[in-house]
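Exercise 7. Given the encoded structure of a 191-residue chain, write a plausible sequence.
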């Protein structure tokens, strides 16, 4: 996968082919918001995904991963239903963007469209993307997405998972705000 973070009018993004577990400063490209290189190696082939999230959604950081469970689900479902109340931090049920070849404008366009009103999206036969106001939040959402995909997968192996309605998710948001409840409140999840 690949990761980026915005600082003002600049974006730091992992280079093409970087392995996230071993990224060093030499693996990070610095670009302006138009995608023009300021310094460093060639950026990820998914640069259009990252820049699109900054322009369209005002992201502070973007995480694109190929988690095993989220990727597997993105190969077989059209939407990840709200099977757990913590999905409010992702915006609710997660859409699966239609398949497009990696690194293309088509992939960026279809993924960003499916991301509307959410902080996470699955990418058909590819992976997942999350964003947040900072890198910690974007990474936390990527971890939450992989966890909830695992919960859904395990529940579906037993039977048909129960899902939460929009009204139930709204009640969770209201109660979290009333109680000032934990990290979910601080994620700034869309309503």
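Solution.
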């Amino acid at each position: 996968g690949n990761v980026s973070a915005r600082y003002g009018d600049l974006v730091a993004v992992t280079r093409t082919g970087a392995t996230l577990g071993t990224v060093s400063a030499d693996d990070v490209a610095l670009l302006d918001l138009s995608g023009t290189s300021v310094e460093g190696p060639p950026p990820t082939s998914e640069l259009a995904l990252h820049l699109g999230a900054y322009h369209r959604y005002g992201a502070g950081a973007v995480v694109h991963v190929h988690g095993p469970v989220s990727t597997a689900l993105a190969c077989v479902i059209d939407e990840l239903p709200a099977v757990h109340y913590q999905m409010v931090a992702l915006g609710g049920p997660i859409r699966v963007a239609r398949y497009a070849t990696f690194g293309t404008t088509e992939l960026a366009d279809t993924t960003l469209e499916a991301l509307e009103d959410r902080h996470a999206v699955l990418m058909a036969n590819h992976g997942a993307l999350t964003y947040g106001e900072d890198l910690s939040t974007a990474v936390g959402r990527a971890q939450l997405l992989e966890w909830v995909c695992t919960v859904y997968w395990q529940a579906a192996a037993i039977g048909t998972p129960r899902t939460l309605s929009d009204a139930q998710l709204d009640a969770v948001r209201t109660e979290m705000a009333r109680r000032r409840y934990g990290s979910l409140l601080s994620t700034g999840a869309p309503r």
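Remark. The chain has six helices and nine strands. Students should compare their own answers with the one above.
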